[in-house]
Amino acid sequence: MHLRFSDPIWQKPRTATAFQSLFPAGQCVDVVIVGGGILGLSTALHAARLGLAVQVLEAGEIGNGASGLNGGQVIPGLKYDPDWLLEHFGLERGEALVNFAASTADTVFELIRDERLAVPFVRNGWIQAAHTETALKAAANRDRQWRARGADVRLLSRTEIATMTGAQGYLGGWLDRRAGVIDPLAYTSELARVAAAAGVKIAERQNVMQISKNAGIWHVSTESGAELKAKAVVLATNAYTGGLLPGLAKTIVPLHSFQIATAPLSSNLAAAILPDGQAVSDSRRILVYYRKSADGRLVLGGRGRMALPNGPADWAHLERALLRLYPALSDIAIEKRWFGRVAMTPDHLPHIHEPEKGLLAVVGCQGRGIGLMTALGERIASYLSSGDTRQLPFPVSPIRPIPFHAFRQVGVAATIAWYRMLDAFER
Ligand SMILES: Cc1cc2nc3c(=O)[nH]c(=O)nc-3n(C[C@H](O)[C@H](O)[C@H](O)COP(=O)(O)OP(=O)(O)OC[C@H]3O[C@@H](n4cnc5c(N)ncnc54)[C@H](O)[C@@H]3O)c2cc1C
What we know:
alpha+beta, eight-stranded mixed beta sheet, globular
């Protein structure tokens, strides 16, 4: 699954090691987890802490998937606001879901603190920047709902957002101080380190090819010949889901998110651009998101083409967005370009499936998975240990392939082109 051009600026800690640890073939472990991203590793860590014997199998290296390639913006909440969740899921489940969604950034920053993870981070909030009156109204509505629940959030005026971002063109915005930024590759790598220290066996370069059940025991085999037996299997392959479980890949629309990183900013530019280190997403239909990295670069991302990129020109739309926001960066070099895959579901919610007892699959991060997948991993581990479905924040749902899946992807590409045009008109 090695992706050409996916060479992020993010760094594993210098002490990071390779993982090649496998349980013996004859031993039946409690859980085999397929996929060594944030979800797989968080599930593994918490399951091991609950006393389970856990094996993680990762097709590439730890961090090769979305977890090591993303924008590092740790944002609580889901795509939906609290009122929508209550209306949609009912009072009891909706309330539990809102509380879960509110806690996801805390889960990440508490893990970094409590486990002493070597992860560069700044926790100074996330700005949702509005460039239209409609977006401002949506921000005010979101602000009202979260403030009523005591969240540390507030609206930003045009002057405030200009000072905080140094960017052009925003009418105002919303600041969620629960959020922050991390180095996502360091985080994923450190999750693997503490999971291994807690007793999890992790093996990289183990592409799982087959999962079958015999006499109540799961048999998992990999391309390089490893064979494992387990009481339960968790598919934590998300946007990189292949054909292991019939129909699963067709429940998501995988999109590409592309990113660029500038050369380190001069001290003058660094003082004017995001001086307090917040993360930003804007309100355009095809949004861009940006932040500064620990080594002082501006990192900006957004939706990319559906096909694999051919060369730097495929990131040109992000360079244009960068200059629209920050004309002062017209001479700065773009030193890195990379991309990764995001899993979207039709209802924009993550889905938990359990098609057979002991076989779990989780897909659909909607591009906001650092907090969500960390917190969900903890809940999945509790469920594996207790069998109590109340541990799961989302109801277990059947695998429902999206009708006309292949056409849907073509439709997404056309919609992106259309939205880009509308965004251009609203400039
Ligand atoms: C470019 C980009 C920017 C993003 N920005 C943000 C952001 O700023 N904030 C945020 O919260 N979220 C962001 N996201 C989303 C976030 O990265 C994901 O939600 C999260 O990393 C998903 O974690 P995961 O563990 O579920 O999946 P992944 O990290 O993708 O892990 C899945 C793993 O499964 C492995 N795998 C697949 N098939 C097999 C197999 N057969 N055998 C063994 N292993 C297999 C893959 O190699 C992969 O490592 C972004 C995503 C992308 C791509």
